[in-house]
Write a structure and sequence with these properties.
By secondary structure, the protein is low in regular secondary structure. It has one helix at 34-40, and strands at 10-13, 24-27. Strands 1-2 form a two-stranded antiparallel ribbon. The model has no long low-confidence stretch (mean pLDDT 86).
């Protein structure tokens, strides 16, 4: 019996001169926020409200895959 490889969703960060100069492609478990995945992988995105969805300092642009994301909650 062959086991299928289970892959986590991939998040691609485009190069940013301060936050991620070379860009990055990381895997994140389903359910993890994009912000948490970035922080866990050393991409220090500002988040003044401590991830409570109350400000917009962690503003991200989702270029592909937006429809696959869950709605944000408070």
């Amino acid at each position: 019996q062959h086991l299928r490889e289970i892959r986590m969703p991939q998040i691609v960060f485009l190069p940013h001169p301060e936050l991620c100069p070379d860009g990055a492609a990381i895997e994140a478990p389903t359910g993890q926020t994009v912000l948490d995945a970035a922080l866990k992988n050393g991409i220090s995105i500002a988040h003044a409200c401590e991830k409570s969805c109350a400000c917009t300092t962690c503003h991200l642009v989702i270029r592909e895959g937006f429809d696959s994301l869950d709605e944000s909650d408070e």
